[in-house]
Design a protein that fits this description.
alpha/beta, TATA-Binding Protein, Rossmann fold, 4 domains, six-stranded antiparallel β-sheet, 13 strands, binds adenosine-5'-diphosphate, binds magnesium ion
């Protein structure tokens, strides 16, 4: 009885049609809001289009961006602002960053509307955006009324201060940089290896110490006399003689006072400049460049590409990186460009050779230490050829332990050596 009346009233009367259209309009506006553009978000928040506002902005390196994002994240947690997009057609985006045992969830492409009386007297929109390509740098922008640009500037300065003073996660740590699908950097444990663990000629350590002192004991003297506190050491020698191990020992000694950045060959080839730019906020920094021969080719052979140009720029003073000690390693110094090796780039070139017979015995003893066995280690060392590396010796001991457990005899180790499988050989024939 009542239904037809209701229906006719809803649809029949001009007033109701208008209301329906209005609802439809609101619906459409709402759905438009869920695909909101960065511009319309700012417009709605601050009541004016972005082009008529003031924007204070900063561009940071990849790691500095993580700090800045963490500082912004604190403000977001504290004031719970309305969030919106910073990139067209993309929801506010957060990224996971692992710091020690903690995983931080940080804004990576997000806009936040802070009302008046929260981060500033006036309302502001803060946008943060991590660039997914190139150097993985970050942009942070603060939009505000153009007559109150100073207020926006203050917010930015405060964010930068918090980032450096409270969120400088990588400072004083060991960070490994490598290239997977994207550039990866992760904090790793302080290397446990000590000088005593390696059998290395003492003059290698004293030469390293001399270069390290330019950034430690002698830093003041050097600065006063106008000498640079940037140093570069090249460790050259065949594979397996302990170049990487030496760099790790030094890293373990310096970390804390120093920030340590270990760069593998693939990351070095693509991101050398980006890595050196990071060093500015880290205090004294040790940069370990592994196997530079893989990417600093020889120009005469035509394979010294942009990585070489980047290397020359960061090592040469065209870009000023003070308080940076670089320890690079190469298996093949002849493959390096003459310009890369010139003394201004490397203050010191340390050549490591294969261990002599006495050192072979010492290294074997080192890896057999703690085993209750009676071995003629001198005889074992004497039967090995001259081009046996520390890594080879370790592998011989490892294979002997795998084959015989701790029940080792001189004869059994001799047998392992004779089999020759401890020495990596090129594969023969087809295994497919
Ligand atoms: N002189 C050495 N004394 C003791 N161990 C060594 C020595 N040289 C190499 N090793 C062992 O071999 C491993 C691999 O050596 P590594 O430092 O990677 O060689 P490189 O970087 O010169 O190719 C080291 O971690 C260490 O265990
Ligand atoms: Mg190495």
């Amino acid at each position: 009885m009542e239904n037809p009346t209701t229906q006719s009233r809803l649809l029949g009367e001009p007033h109701d049609v208008r209301r329906a259209l209005q609802l439809l309009g609101e619906l459409l506006t709402d759905s438009a809001a869920t695909t909101e553009s960065p511009e319309s978000f700012i417009w709605r928040a601050l009541g004016a289009p972005p082009t008529s506002l003031a924007c204070e902005s900063i561009n940071t390196t990849a790691w500095a961006g993580v700090s800045l994002s963490a500082a912004l994240n604190d403000l977001i947690l504290k004031f719970e602002p309305t969030l919106g997009p910073a990139v067209s057609d993309q929801a506010p985006t957060w990224t996971q960053v692992r710091i020690d045992d903690e995983t931080l969830s940080l804004p990576a492409a997000t806009a936040a509307h802070f009302p008046a009386g929260t981060v500033a007297e006036i309302p502001v929109v803060i946008q943060i955006e991590r660039n997914e390509y190139g150097d993985y740098d970050w942009d942070l922008r603060i939009f505000a009324d153009p007559t109150r640009r100073a207020d926006a500037r203050e917010v930015l300065d405060e964010l930068s201060r918090t980032a450096i003073e409270e969120k400088n996660f990588y400072r004083g740590r060991v960070v490994a940089v490598d290239l997977g699908l994207t550039l990866q950097w992760k904090i790793i444990d302080r290397p446990a290896l000590r000088r005593d663990d390696l059998i290395i000629k003492p003059d290698v350590w004293s030469e390293l110490d001399l270069n390290i002192s330019a950034l430690t004991d002698r830093a003041e003297v050097m600065r006063e006399r106008g000498f640079s506190t940037r140093r570069g050491v090249l460790l050259a020698g065949p594979p397996g003689v302990g170049k990487s191990a030496i760099a790790r020992v030094i890293a373990g000694e310096l970390v804390g006072d120093f920030t340590v950045i270990i760069v593998d060959a693939r990351a070095g080839a693509s991101a050398l400049r980006a890595v050196y730019r990071e060093t500015e906020r880290f205090g004294p920094t040790l940069v370990v460049l592994e196997d530079v021969d893989l990417y600093l080719g020889d120009r005469r052979r035509g394979d010294g590409g942009s990585a070489l140009a980047d290397f020359l720029a960061v090592m040469d003073g065209a870009e000023e990186y003070e308080e940076v000690l670089t320890i690079a390693s190469t298996n093949d110094p002849a493959a390096l460009d003459a310009a890369a090796v010139r003394s201004a780039r490397f203050d010191s070139i340390i050549t490591l050779g294969y261990p002599d017979q006495a050192d072979r015995a010492r290294i074997l003893r080192r890896y057999l230490a703690g085993l209750d066995v009676d071995l003629d280690i001198e005889a074992i060392a004497a039967m090995l050829p001259d081009n046996v590396s520390g890594a080879d010796l370790r592998e011989i001991v490892r294979r002997a332990l795998l084959a015989h457990g701790t029940d080792l005899t001189t004869e059994r180790i001799r047998q392992v050596i004779k089999e020759g499988r401890w020495q990596p050989e090129p594969l023969q024939g087809s295994y497919l």
